UniProtKB/TrEMBL annotation:
<dbReference type="Pfam" id="PF03099">
    <property type="entry name" value="BPL_LplA_LipB"/>
</dbReference>
<dbReference type="InterPro" id="IPR003142">
    <property type="entry name" value="BPL_C"/>
</dbReference>
<feature type="domain" description="BPL/LPL catalytic">
    <location>
        <begin position="15"/>
        <end position="201"/>
    </location>
</feature>
<dbReference type="GO" id="GO:0004077">
    <property type="term" value="F:biotin--[biotin carboxyl-carrier protein] ligase activity"/>
</dbReference>
<dbReference type="InterPro" id="IPR004408">
    <property type="entry name" value="Biotin_CoA_COase_ligase"/>
</dbReference>
<protein>
    <recommendedName>
        <fullName>biotin--[biotin carboxyl-carrier protein] ligase</fullName>
        <ecNumber>6.3.4.15</ecNumber>
    </recommendedName>
</protein>
<keyword id="KW-0436">Ligase</keyword>
<dbReference type="InterPro" id="IPR004143">
    <property type="entry name" value="BPL_LPL_catalytic"/>
</dbReference>
<dbReference type="GO" id="GO:0005737">
    <property type="term" value="C:cytoplasm"/>
</dbReference>
<keyword id="KW-0092">Biotin</keyword>
<dbReference type="Pfam" id="PF02237">
    <property type="entry name" value="BPL_C"/>
</dbReference>
<dbReference type="InterPro" id="IPR045864">
    <property type="entry name" value="aa-tRNA-synth_II/BPL/LPL"/>
</dbReference>
């Protein structure tokens, strides 16, 4: 039984019919929107759908997940209906190397939507964590399934401080956002993804030609900062984050060399003082 002090009125369900009417249109990206009460992981669901040949633009939104997956083998958890937990299925036609920008594109879309709808100054920790100050508001997990990519978004919306999974997390409610209502937020995030994805696809994945790199850097909390990056294989690199390359890799200058990082966990050490 759900023992949350919130009533259903405080945390209303999302309507599959209303979201479909608002977002699925001829020639548009979104082809099918499913809202499910509960599942293990929306990323796992769409990964299976991708293997079964599902079309680009499928979206699965869960009111609750029992086995939400995070980056680097972590878990993602949130009380039912307290956040946005959804995944999208994309079948990009740009070269695999440039697809490294896709998770960053979705992060930018989510941050832009949060800034516009909730009026919260979300910024991006590379590759795609949404931060408010140094606290994590949202995380994004991209997984390649053959030639498809499933991108999952977990965004903390109405969680109270005592419901946050870790001390370093936050939610729109905790940040006193002007809007902590999931329906306008999910619409805005999906519309932003659609716009950025269309522009990026039309530019054949060139993050400069479509303005993606400039927009991303404009919201980056990482570039220009001293960072410590925990790399796969328990290696650690400390240096100055100087940019993001054409494949979405983070560039870190350390002891006179520039390192190009494709994966890793960034810790912001302190602001960069030139
Ligand atoms: O910050 C991270 O580590 C990424 C978290 C991604 C969580 C979302 S919730 C919806 C989708 N389904 C999952 O199992 N994970 C992603």
């Amino acid at each position: 039984m759900d023992d949350s002090p919130f009533t259903d009125l405080d945390r209303p369900p999302l309507s599959q019919a209303a979201l479909t009417r608002a977002l699925v249109r001829p020639g548009g990206l979104w082809s099918d929107i499913a809202v499910v009460d509960r599942t293990g992981s929306t990323n796992a669901d769409l990964a299976q759908a991708a293997r079964d040949g599902a079309r680009e633009g499928a979206v699965v939104i869960a009111e609750a997940q029992s086995a939400g997956r995070g980056r680097l083998g972590r878990v993602w958890s949130a009380p039912p209906r307290s956040g946005l937990t959804f995944s999208v299925l994309l079948r990009p036609e740009v070269s695999p190397a440039k697809q490294g920008w896709l998770p960053l594109l979705v992060g930018l879309a989510a941050a832009s939507a949060v800034r516009r709808v909730a009026e919260i100054e979300a910024r991006l920790k590379w590759p795609n964590d949404l931060l408010v100050g140094e606290r994590k508001l949202a995380g994004i997990l991209a997984e390649r399934i053959d030639s498809a990519v499933v991108v999952g978004v977990g965004l903390n919306v109405s969680l109270r401080a005592d419901e946050l999974p870790v001390e370093t997390a936050t939610s729109l409610a905790v940040e006193n956002a002007v809007c902590a209502d999931r329906d306008p937020l999910v619409r805005a995030v999906l519309r932003e993804i659609e716009t950025h994805y269309r522009e990026w696809s039309q530019a054949d994945g060139d993050a400069d030609a479509c303005g993606l790199r400039a927009a991303y850097l404009g919201l980056s909390a990482t570039v220009g900062r001293e960072v410590r990056v925990e790399l796969p294989g328990e290696r650690v690199l400390t240096g100055l984050a100087t940019g993001v390359d054409g494949e979405g890799h983070l560039l870190v200058e350390s002891q006179g060399s520039v390192h190009t990082l494709g994966a890793g966990d960034v810790v912001h050490v302190r602001p960069h003082v030139p």
